[in-house]
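Chain and backbone:
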Amino acid sequence: MGKYEETNAETGEVSECTVAANNGRYGPYLTKTSADGRSDTRSLGSEDEIFTVDIDKAKELFAQPKYGRGRGRGAAKPPLRDLGNDPNTGKHVTIKDAALALTSPMARPIARCRANTRRSRLRRRMRSVCLPK
């Protein structure tokens, strides 16, 4: 698609970047490859943008933070419960809400709580107690 010069904010170095538009497995995207070989990608809105995007639009997209799965979600969620120190190990124990279960950093998932799951069956399966919110 094209090349442009980019200035590093920390060091002030000027380097040349190559930008290419592609259509991949998860949709259209732009790839920026720096002179040192590092690459960065950004998603495009539609397949038509592969043919219509220009260098100025690409600069705009690369100036924005990445979004999507695992990136750009912001700060971590606070813990659901703070249980204090473990009497056996002395380590601090908290309970956090993960994508599929309530978890503790020290142990396996505490309980998988779904609205349609009976707590007694859950206790047998996980050998644990489902904590109320």
